[in-house]
Amino acid sequence: MAFIDYYKALGVSKTASEKDIKKAYRKLARKHHPDLNPNDKEAEKKFKEINEANEVLSNPENRKKYDQYGEHWQNSEAYEQAKQQQSRQQRAYQGQAGGSGGYSERDFEDIFGNMFGGQASGRRGSGNSRFRGQDFNAELQLDLKDVYEEHKRTLTVNNKNIRITIPAGVENGQTIKIKGHGGKGVNGGPNGDLLIQFSIHNHTKFKRNKDNLYTTVNLDLYTAMLGGDLMVDTFTSKVKLTIKPETQNGTKVKLKGKGFPKYKKAGQFGDLYITYQLKTPTKLTDKEKELFTELQKLR
Amino acid sequence: MEVTDLISINTFCSHYKVPTTFIHDLKEYELIEIVVLNNDHFIKTTQIIEVEKLIRLHFDLHINLEGLDAVYHLLQRVENMQNKITSLQNTLRLYEDL
Known about the structure:
The complex is a heterodimer. By secondary structure, chain A is α+β, with helices and mostly antiparallel strands. Chain A has helices at residues 6-10, 18-32, 41-57, 60-69, 76-97, 105-120, 221-226, 286-298, and strands at residues 136-143, 151-157, 160-166, 175-178, 194-201, 207-209, 212-220, 228-233, 238-243, 252-255, 272-279. In chain A, the strands form 4 sheets. Chain A has a 4-stranded mixed beta sheet. Chain A has a 3-stranded mixed beta sheet with strand order 1-5-4, with no helix packed on it. In chain A, strands 2-3 form a two-stranded antiparallel sheet. In chain A, helix 2 runs antiparallel to helix 3 (41-57). The longest helix of chain A has 22 residues, at 76-97. Chain B has 4 helices and 3 strands, in the order E-H-H-E-E-H-H. Chain A binds chain B through residues 26, 29-30, 33, 35-36, 38-39, 129-132, 171-174, 179, 190, 202, 207-210, 214, and chain B through 49, 52-53, 56-57, 60-63, 71, 75, 78-79, 82, 86-87, 89-91, 93-94, 97.
């Protein structure tokens, strides 16, 4: 865990009074509180930093230790004991051999880094304020086909398996909240929530806007001019469409209820919009060219 | 309304260690709805998350009721705008590949 300069975190000087620290903390807490900055990870990180800084600096004893030992303030007692022990050993050694030596300040820091380094990250606040646990944010990648029907998924969050139901019709970027599955509350505060944001990838030929689907189908010149039947794909099956004579390029038709399921409205679907794209024939034979020329003369 | 959809204000306040007057104040500011059944006062369980948030803002951040009123409505606007942005981004994807 990176060292946080608590004074810098609160934006106060090392000579700041208790009142100044309290005032700075309250101001920054209002600015970065997760409730006031929904889905803002930077604000959440900053809020944790200022909380930690306030818990240490608002307690005179802890502040004194922090001023003296910096990032190792939590291990100050052990540090002092080890220092005294070292001093005793050094004196004994000097008494025996008359030499000098021993550990430097830097060595002590290394020793404590090794002995207590792991404990620092487990630090918890000792203040009385109840804080809601942090919200956990997760992104779930799904294919568009996956969200056509309601289905269940098991997610592993902090070594716990959570089985969630993903309703049909969820949208890209939509977030669902699983209450109480976030970080643990502080001092009896409520647990945070697990926020799952869906990232939906579309590898189909259909474009989606909410519960409507859009696609383009090719229409040959003769069917467009004379009319006829055309088989087209819907999202899940095929349908036969009747093409009216003299259908123009870019004509749109709506297939009602053939779109995407409506979110949390079981059995209801949006529409499928089909745009006809006229494909004119290429590599004309001499005979075809002749006939088209005749047609041209008729117009 | 089903009783299971409601929580008594006394029970709620005792659990969250807040005075019942605070809940009534929230109602005065039209931030929450209070249901009265047989002279007992309840809040809807669906509102608990919002009330929890208001409790934190008031008691942890010392935001007074007028401030809560302003913050609450601004947060609603932020949420609506975020939903709108997501919706617009999804609509934009329709045209990006054209």
